[in-house]
Design a protein that fits this description.
By secondary structure, the chain is α/β, with parallel strands linked by helices. It is built from 26 helices and 29 strands. About 40% of the residues lie in helices and about 20% in strands. The structure holds flavin-adenine dinucleotide and flavin mononucleotide (FMN). The site of flavin-adenine dinucleotide has 31 residues, from helix 1, strand 3 and helix 10.
């Protein structure tokens, strides 16, 4: 087999080594435009778990690399004169130049034909090769040449950063946070040999411009960095090496393999440097591609596809974590109000991979100092006006499509009753529709007739008496997404018969198959506002503790907010202020009848996940309006406004929107969406990302989710209903396995049908 490798970075070199090892008969020609001794950047970090992969793949290079490793376990966060240390982490680093030398020597030793200082020929001139590997880095020419097949997406991020080095050898992974007037500037620094450390300086593009760094030469910029981080550098120098200010570009490709061409490493995908090095991903790709050939012989097509299907989920999961981390650093300025320990915990858990439990294992003392309360963070109470919630868990609203003519029946009593016995501090109802035509489906519950109020009162009384939890009524109007089938008969599909007229801000259907709604007149708005008020009064009479207005998921009030659904040219359409006018009017009217000692929550979709739609900036601005109009807490969901949405699903994927609102406005928020474990809840609460965590599907799986979370944490101060106390012991191991499986599903698999309704 003849192989052309384009690019002699860690990925290309490691692949050459492994291919020559497993197939000594194959010819490998590697083109590298740099000279043998050339290398940019400073140190490369590996986590302990990566190293085992390399140890097995090629013990020879592994032992040479390991011999030169600098190792450490602590992460120090320096901010405002404080140093906060978290221990128990395992890192190793090596200079990039050294790493490349080891790999180059080994590749040459195994007979790779390395052509240094040689521009790689275009793919079209490599007809002789059985396999062509584009390992030519983030600006890959191979990817560009075949972009119609690979379909790359390049996401240029909002921070500027520069890779520098210093001759100060740090004893930990260091984050130095500087706060000049122009904005926050952070340095990520770590040792990589006995004489040097990497020192990456990063800041938001706005800050970079305000500081005038755009106009300065790189030497001037290095001088500025030295001055800004003078305390951190303790008299030592900063060095540059082909350094320049760059915007990180996240590279993704729809396909990594086309015909006999495969992309590998940065050419295929990049992950922000703050969660570990791209070097590790590139070398792991090489292992997977080589191993695919070991398994599948000369079958280039099958081997390259096997490589992609093995690596893609792992890489995408890493990219999700990297995205969380890079966005956290982009928004670091919003955490100015956090005290040092919580800030440190927040920073350490930013990618969602490191959690409260991980950190407790690594450094229990650190976690105790962050959260000295003996109760796990999720079991600390929260007060909203006169309502005291005993813990931070919310049973998220879930439509059961089981009402008869709007009346909640026995199913609702059993369903909500079971969850009320399950330990959550707050149990939310499904969306209670404010009118018959405000229902999504014929099975949706409402509160527009007196018998509805009585039926809800029965459920609330049960929950109060036996569950001891607070109960919230989510009230809403389906708008243009109304008059559709029950969830299990076809989400968002119009009814086969008996459809009712639907109304919306504009005569724009939700999708081509849905009805064209009638654009609302002012008289319609008066009527709908009054229906909300009637329902709010009903909720009060039924005994609910909290009222939530549903302004999310493309239903009526949400569609007023979204520029995709609201095309009005009167005072209710256009700018955000105008689009928000009617939803705020409804809020005002409900607030006026809802008692001042009871809280109101508003659920929003923080983004439509469609270009030109409602977005997180608008969500922050709207949350500010909500706070001004008497809303006490924002329940931050996303999407379901347009069928064209393209959500970035993943574990806790909506929490960053909640976090932003909480810190930029200073108002309480509920985080929701793929929060799978009590560890996630503890992490979110301890980091200050949200005040409450709402869980929907986990409560379908386990109505007693909170009680079980308490048992698993050996926390025995939650009350079980006396009837159930005999079962209040730690669950058997089998159940843990099922739970672990559910958590894995949230981590790896995109949320599909469940998410697309209500
Ligand atoms: C300026 C900079 C500094 C960095 N420093 C560090 C660091 O200190 N630590 C760290 O962990 N990560 C660092 N990274 C990230 C890291 O380099 C990459 O994630 C990792 O090297 C990816 O490996 P790769 O083999 O896929 O690509 P690369 O390492 O980028 O290797 C691609 C190779 O292809 C060669 N090439 C490209 N086009 C052609 C062509 N047409 N013909 C011939 N050769 C070509 C390039 O010269 C390069 O050697 C840095 C990135 C940049 C941009
Ligand atoms: C069966 C089902 C019904 C739902 N009904 C509603 C609803 O009535 N109102 C609402 O705001 N969200 C509704 N949702 C969305 C959930 O409240 C929640 O936001 C979403 O499922 C993400 O949380 P999870 O990942 O914990 O499931 C529903 C979800 C499910 C699974």
């Amino acid at each position: 087999m003849r192989i052309a490798v384009l690019g002699g970075g860690p990925g290309g070199l490691y692949l050459s080594i492994l291919m020559r090892k497993i197939r000594p008969d194959c010819e490998v020609t590697l083109y590298e435009r740099g000279a043998a001794g050339d290398a940019f950047g400073f140190g490369v970090v590996f986590s302990d778990e990566t190293l085992t992969v390399f140890e097995h793949a090629d013990p020879d290079t592994y032992s040479q690399i390991a011999e030169r490793f600098t190792r450490w376990t602590d992460i120090d966060i320096h901010r405002r004169g404080n140093k906060t240390t978290s221990g128990g982490h395992g890192f190793s680093a090596i200079g990039r130049r050294e790493l490349l030398h080891i790999l180059q020597d080994r590749a040459l030793g195994l007979g790779t034909d390395i052509r240094f200082e040689t521009e790689a020929p275009p793919v079209s001139e490599l007809g002789w090769a059985d396999l062509i590997v584009g390992a030519d880095g983030a600006s890959s020419a191979v990817r560009t040449a075949l972009s119609r097949d690979f379909v790359p997406a390049l996401d240029r991020r909002h921070c500027r950063y520069v890779w520098l080095g210093t001759d100060l050898v740090f004893d930990a992974f260091k984050f130095f946070i500087a706060e000049p007037e122009e904005g926050v500037v952070q340095a990520h620094a770590y040792p990589y040999d006995e004489g040097m450390s990497t020192f990456i300086v990063e800041m938001h593009e706005r800050t970079w411009k305000r500081l005038g760094l755009a106009e300065r030469s790189i030497d001037d910029a290095v001088a500025w960095c030295s001055e800004t981080f003078a305390d951190a550098l303790d008299g030592h120098r900063l060095y540059s090496n082909k350094s320049r200010w760059i915007n990180f570009v996240t590279v993704r490709n729809r396909r990594w393999c086309v015909d006999n061409v495969a992309l590998l490493g940065d050419a295929a995908h990049t992950a922000h440097f703050s969660i570990g090095s791209g070097t590790k991903l590139a070398m792991e790709d090489a292992v997977a591609l080589a191993w695919a050939f070991r398994e599948l012989g000369d079958d280039v097509f099958s081997a390259t596809r096997a490589y992609e299907s093995e690596r893609r989920p792992i890489v995408e999961s890493t990219q999700r974590a990297a995205q969380g981390s890079l966005e956290w650093f982009e928004g670091i300025g919003r955490y100015g109000g956090q005290e040092p320990l919580q800030f440190a915990f927040n920073l350490l858990t930013r990618s969602r991979r490191v959690t409260y439990d991980n950190l407790r294992l690594r450094d229990p003392e650190f976690v105790r100092s962050v959260h000295p309360d003996p109760r796990p963070p999720m079991f600390t109470p929260l007060r909203l006006r006169g309502l005291e919630l005993s813990n931070r868990v919310v049973v998220s609203p879930m439509d059961m499509y089981s009402a008869l003519d709007g009346t909640p029946g026995d199913f609702h009593l059993v369903h909500l009753g079971a969850r009320a016995l399950g330990g959550a501090g707050l149990v939310m109802t499904e969306m209670i529709c404010v009118s018959g035509i405000g229902r999504i489906t014929p099975g949706c519950a409402g509160m527009y007739r007196r018998e509805h109020v009585a039926a809800w009162r029965r459920i609330v009384s049960f929950a109060h008496e036996h569950g001891g939890c607070a109960v919230g009524a989510q009230i809403g109007h389906s708008g243009r997404k109304g008059s559709t089938k029950l969830m299990w008969q076809g989400i968002d599909e119009p009814l086969p018969a008996g459809n009712w007229e639907v109304i919306a801000p504009s005569a724009v259907p939700y999708s081509r198959r849905n009805q064209v709604p009638r654009a609302m007149t002012r008289a319609d708005m008066d009527m709908v506002r009054d229906e909300f008020v009637w329902t709010a009064r009903g909720a009060l009479s039924a005994g609910f503790d909290l009222l939530e207005l549903h302004m999310a998921h493309g239903y009526l009030l949400s569609s007023f907010l979204s520029p995709l659904a609201n095309l009005r040219d009167d005072e209710y359409g256009g700018s955000l202020v105008r689009r928000a006018r009617f939803p705020l009017e409804v809020l005002d009217a409900c607030r006026a009848v809802w008692p001042t000692d009871k809280p109101i929550s508003v659920r929003i979709s923080a983004t439509d996940w469609v270009a030109g739609g409602f977005d997180p900036d608008q969500a922050v601005a709207f949350a500010r309006m909500l706070a001004d109009h008497g809303c006490d807490i924002v329940d931050v969901s996303s999407g379901q406004v347009s069928p064209l949405e393209n959500p970035a699903f993943g574990r806790s994927y909506q929490t960053p929107f909640a976090d932003r609102i909480r810190h930029e406005i200073g108002m309480p928020v509920i985080a929701v969406g793929a929060i799978a474990s009590y560890d996630d809840v503890n992490t979110i609460i301890a980091a200050g990302r949200a005040d409450l965590c709402a869980l929907a599907r986990p409560h379908l799986y386990d109505p007693h989710w909170t009680l079980h979370a308490a048992a698993e944490q050996d926390y025995d101060l939650v009350e079980w209903a006396p009837q159930y106390q005999a079962g209040s012991r730690k669950p058997p191991a089998g159940r843990d396995r099922v739970r672990a499986e559910l958590e894995r599903t949230f981590e790896e698999v995109e949320l599909t049908s469940f998410e697309s309704r209500a």
